[in-house]
Write a structure and sequence with these properties.
Blueprint: H1 3-8, E1 23-27, E2 30-35, H2 51-57, H3 60-69
Antiparallel strand pairs: 1-2
Length: about 80
């Protein structure tokens, strides 16, 4: 566990926490969404953590297609000797 990162993203890492695992989607360095979410009453909203629910909830198929259509340009690094 990385306590500093958990604090930065407000994730409770205690052994009894229902926030683990927490999945966070970032876009351009900014958090877009996370699961499970904490509602206005500071209660966790249940999330069924299956491959299908993650793909659907995070819209990963469209995100994948977007990334394929707009690949990052490779940076030119000097070759190490």
């Amino acid at each position: 566990r990385n306590e500093d990162t958990a604090k930065q993203f407000r994730i409770n890492t205690s052994p009894l926490s229902k926030q683990l695992p927490t999945l966070v989607l970032f876009r351009n360095g900014q958090e877009v969404m996370r699961r499970p979410v904490v509602n206005n009453s500071n209660k966790l909203v249940k999330f069924n953590l299956t491959a299908e629910s993650v793909i659907s909830e995070f819209d990963l198929n469209n995100l994948y297609n977007e990334c394929k259509a707009n690949p990052l340009k490779k940076s030119k690094r000097p070759k190490e000797e």
